[in-house]
Amino acid sequence: MDQQIEASMPRADYVDILKRIEVSVESLQKDYNCLSASIEAIKRQVDVLGDTKQLPDGIGERRAPDDLNPSSPTRALVTSRDLLDSNEVAALPRPSSSPSGQVYSSDKKPSPSAHASSASSSKIILTTYTGQSGIDPVALIWGERDPVSRGPVVVSRTRSTFGRRNAIGAHGGSYSIYHALAVASKDLNVEHKPDFTNTEPAAKIGPFPQWSDPRKIVAMDPWGHLSPWLFTDLVRREHVDIRPSIAITKAHMKLPELEQSVRAGRLIPDGKICLNETGELAVTKFAVEPVWFLPGVAERFGIDEGILRRSLFEYTGGSFPELITRGDIKLFLPPIGGLTVYCFGDPAKMSDPNVRLALRVHDECNGSDVFGSDICTCRPYLIFGVEEAVKEAQQGGSGIVIYFRKEGRALGEVTKYLVYNARKRGTD
Questions:
Q1: Which of 219, 278, 352, 406 is the most exposed place for a label (fewest CB within 10 A)?
Q2: Whose CA is closest to 246, among 258, 229, 266?
């Protein structure tokens, strides 16, 4: 047919018609995207002001993107077989500075009683897709020097925030599971938002040059201790749920061995760091939840980002399908333990290249660190690290102990105890 039309008119006219059609299609697409964004913005405001819906409007059945579902473009859901195809993983869309998309909808309106405690509805949202209507992630440029220009980490699934997420996973690391239990048992309203009044960091930290290098920090958000306060306008104006992933406080530390250290002369009370004869210590503590920048994590391990995403998806039981369907999202908050930094002395000296640093990096060992089990020597090493950190801080340097919540170098206690049994019975 095309050949007949082309033969019946000059070629220049034929090309001109095709160009005009192309321009018209592009214009319609732009108008559609603008209209979708406007509708979604209105819907978010209605959800917040009216408090009548449990999930972002229209999240339900929709056609999967062609690059993830080439064999059946009209099918509503992507199957696990589709998601795990290696060619499709390789074809994941590249990130864009301002992704746009399409809105999802639920057939049934939730009852008021259901809304009070749960976000469940007649349909379950298995995943979202790049370019889907209603999906408008808050812009984030990892490694950008200015924190406001870089943008916040947004992972909450509250109604006003669901479509604005720029991270996969959930706040709280492994504790996110308990959060889900609290919601399921109706002990916590799914729309609950924390009040961060008077929770600001107890010490000023940074910024440092490494924070603006996307290859230096890939497993935590360096601005995570300031997020709710840096982005107050976004929270108030657009009702985006932004939460910290780092908290900083000051405390005193008392361990029985430290009193013995004072008696033995290894520690000397100075009233500032080692406070008294009992070995009580002044310490600044940093609690850090993991925030993974997936391209940087993949680079650290020398693997492709697509392979990393697929492995994380498959070997967490398919818990995070957006690792596959949302190639535009580069952050992942994994359900694992975080870490705690114990800083002795002035925290500002941690990054001072002109002073000495004593550092102990310690993996959690519940049996020895807490209960004094004699099957390993982790607690003595921990106490030694604390002593050395305190002495360095007292000499004008900086003393740090980093405590990772990953039992047995991330093997877990079950595997650890099996190894203990094997050792006791003559094998390893």
A1: 352
A2: 229
